[in-house]
Amino acid sequence: MKTEITKLLGIEYPIIQGGMAWVAEYHLAAAVSNAGGLGIIAAGAAPAEWVREQIREAKKLTDKPFGVNIMLMNPSADEIAKVVVEEGVKVVTTGAGNPEKYMKDWKEAGIKVIPVVASVALAKRMEKCGADAVVAEGTEAGGHIGELTTMVLVPQVRDAVSIPVIAAGGVADGRGMAAAFMLGADGVQIGTHFVVTKECIVHQNYKDCILKAKDIDTRVTGRSTGHPVRALRNNLTMEYLKKEAEGASAEELEMLAAGGLRKAVVDGDTRTGSLMAGQSAGLVKEECTCQEFIERITAEACALMGKKVD
Question: What is the distance of C-alpha 117 from the center of its chain?
């Protein structure tokens, strides 16, 4: 399946793995890249040297292109921005901020820059400052989200920019992938389904919760703080929503959620851990390899669109 995204990134399938903090480390990134997609190492809130080590470990497992996701709110963002240049990373995706101040150095190093956006205005701004493509992420996605749905965001971003557009949020099978292309996308970014792949290192309890999830099993917390997050319903989300309704301070809410993602990913704590997942969790029914998933979803999409997989 050849699109503007496969040409831009030098990959076989127009599928990018989401930059999920604590989840998207080098094992998963390398497996996705080896399967023909674009694997992503998520820097999250990690220090720069951890990111450097992850990049080097990924290179031991794959000779295919992979990227690094940089959360620009990370206090180490400036250092990580230099590390990706020094280590020869091919692609950077960004979130939680404006990457404009790093753009010159990244472009001179030949790095493809793909910001994640949740609005048309931000997409246009990213194109203006030199982005090679954008990820238009709908509110269906897991983790930190915007307000617009994928269905309405993607076509509006497509109409607003001339660079390639990658659809994210709610894509978990070939139907979602085909729909994204019909909306004008050149590729898709997928997170939730990659969490349950065999190469993903998250605790099995986390995977099992996604596999058992139903259509209504995600909740959005943090709207009162301006930082909404989508995760599976559990004791943590319900307590958080209760405190929000009672008018708890941002500091109190932050303390409640502190370390929640690590508890879920590393400890397998399904009660007080933050089980970040998108609304597509209800579509995820089996654990498989990255290769099996990418080949299946692409074949399904191509069949629906009447195309052959190259």
Answer: 11
DSSP string, 115-155: EEESSHHHHHHHHHTT-S-EEEE-TTSSEE--SS-HHHHHH
307: pLDDT strictly greater than 80? no
pLDDT of residue 226: 87
CA distance 49 to 56: 11
What is the spatial order of strands in the sheet that 39-42 belongs to?
A: 15-17, 187-190, 165-168, 134-137, 112-117, 91-95, 66-71, 39-42
Cα angle value 5/9/10 (rounded, 5°) = 110
For the stretch 204-244, pLDDT in tens is 999 999 999 999 999 999 998 888 999 999 999 999 999 99
Q: Where are the beta strands (DSSP E) in the chain?
A: 15-17, 39-42, 66-71, 91-95, 112-117, 134-137, 143-144, 165-168, 187-190, 218-221, 229-232
Q: Report how far residue 117's alpha carbon sits from residue 194's, in angstroms, rounded to the nearest whole number.
A: 21
> What pTM was estimated for this model as a whole?
0.93
**β-bridge partners, 168:** 137, 189
Nearby residues of 144 by Cβ (< 8 Å), 6 or more positions away: 95, 96, 227, 228, 229
Half-sphere exposure of 20 (CA within 13 A, CB side): 35
Chain-centre distance for alpha carbon 228? 15
d(CA 17, CA 39): 5
How far apart, in whole angstroms, are the C-alpha atoms of residue 129 and residue 159?
Answer: 18
